[in-house]
Amino acid sequence: MTPGSRKVAVVGVALSECGRVDDATPYALHAQAARRALADAGLGREVVDGFASAGLGTLAPVEVAEYLGLRPTWVDSTSVGGATWEVMAAHAADAIAAGHANAVLLVYGSTARADIRAGRRTGNLSFGSRGPLQFEVPYGHTLIAKYAMAARRHMLEHGTTIEQLAEVAVQARANAALNPEAMFRDPITVDDVLSGPMIADPFTKLHCCIRSDGGAAVLLVAEELVRDCRTAPVWVLGSGEHVSHSAMSEWPDFTTGPAAVSGRLAFERAGVRPEEIDFAEIYDAFTYMTLVTLEDLGFCGKGEGGAFVEKGRLLVRGGELPVNTDGGGLSAQHPGMRGLFLLVEAVRQLRGEGGERQVWGPDGPGELPRLGVASATGGWFCSSGTLVLGRD
């Protein structure tokens, strides 16, 4: 095959222990997820010649690769917040297609919840005050406040209501109720969301992601390795990435996120349209992220996200476009940079491994979905990575 012509498949996905994990280190969660992903694929670690990781160690991914006993000849440590893993997966797919690697392992692990519980760290309100951020931090622009301001702008310009934003959290919890691995599964109502303690106006507690521990791993390989795997391949059909701003003052439109660019590129490169997608896994640190990303990806028009999320459209059972089928960061797990968890869930859905939360294709129960999209956002809508995935 000529360089650049190889197809790329995801053949192994796994989660480590997730939720409340008080007796493991982040390195241990990395290793657990990595071992499980390789076992899922039916491959040994000797095939891994590419490695990508971020968020742990002084020289990520060098330290993590050493801990896992890997000596890769292709590495990536791109770090753009929650979108890191979709961007890394895109880079890995390009490298494999070009013949620079044959099997790339992406791994993440965090004990964010346990560390705070044990007093090893405190909750961070911002990412620091150096560089462009020095002009915002003195005014109290915390991470949550930035998303809250963006949500308020959408409400002002497009008439989006707080009840519509609350619907995102309610439907995520309903999907989580079908997921035995989800951290929170008890049903909630719109009133429950609205009556919670205020975090950053207009976000109450249930508008915000949970804090958990956990890890995830994804293995991508060249098409000639697929025959050696125990799982059905899920193909990377198209990808896109985009960075938009760092300072909020440089963000031209609070109602449009970077997924408007990364999504367009991913769909164009995959040769599919949004209306062909069977389900979507979307980064949801806050309810507004889900709503505006649905608009940005073209599932509804700009300003129509509020109406789109009403009437159960995001539900696994009965929804027109199941979104965050595992319960998302709002209910399932959120140990930090959650983008890798989106890819794990998307692959499981395409392979028919969703259990009670399995999404069906257009013809109804029994038909597996054929196309899914995973789109993650990083920072405060600073970056985005989007992948279109499909099965044979």
From TrEMBL:
InterPro entries tied to this protein: Thiolase, Thiolase_C_2
One Pfam family in the UniProt entry: Thiolase_C_1
Domain spans labelled Thiolase C-terminal: 240-391
Protein name, UniProt field: Thiolase C-terminal domain-containing protein
Organism: Streptomyces osmaniensis
